[in-house]
Design a protein that fits this description.
This protein is of the alpha+beta class and 253 residues long. It is built from nine helices and twelve strands. A hairpin with a 3-residue loop joins strand 9 and strand 10.
Length: 253
Amino acid sequence: MRRVTCEEYAQYIDIANSNQCGRVYPLSVAEGIQSGDIFVSSADASEVLFWTHCGFAYLSETVNDIFLKEIYEYMTDENMPRRFLLMTDSEKVESYFRTKENVVLERRSLFEYRENAVNAKMDVPKEFELKELDAGFLSKVSGNIVPSLFWKSADDFLLKGKGYCVVHNEEVASWAFSAAVSSQEIDIGIETNLKYQKQGLGMIVAKRMMQYAIEQGKKPVWACHYQNTASAKMAEKLGFVKTGECTIIKRKM
């Protein structure tokens, strides 16, 4: 397969926009907002693979076995520069990878926000403050779902992304941020420091991040691993509706 040059990315916007497993991620690359790679099949240039900085990968609707073989060999290479998580709702793609012994198939829940406004009520507990995730607070964020996983640099995030945090004595207790940004949508990444969990802080930053997305004329997006019941429940409380699932295909570790 061939890696597409950055100058060609705009040619693949329509294909990215038609993805059924979360178009915001492939669009973030095709529109040049976030870093990532685009590949086309050696056999047919209309068959496309989008690979984001965070490792999420998405396919065009049409793919043949030659392209899938190329992708399989690429994703199972032990010298991969970053993780590779292929998202698909295609039975053909699933069937192909189910025959491979060194890959794992899991599920990801997809949600859609169907309201026009977010409930603005945010009761920030005493001794806590709701702040914008600026350079100072960004340097204090540490966890599994953090901007550095999704953006190539702090400067890139601060320039093109957005985030909010709840702070206690200058310690970042909970944060929500734009994990993926396209011209139409913003995917929300969220995490709470273990020390501050079960205090409703995640709801506060998530609401603020959703408000920001709507203020920008964009739709907030939510997705999570199918076993992440806490994230799914929060999504429903925030007004998201589960619309389906897609398959996650990754190399067995």
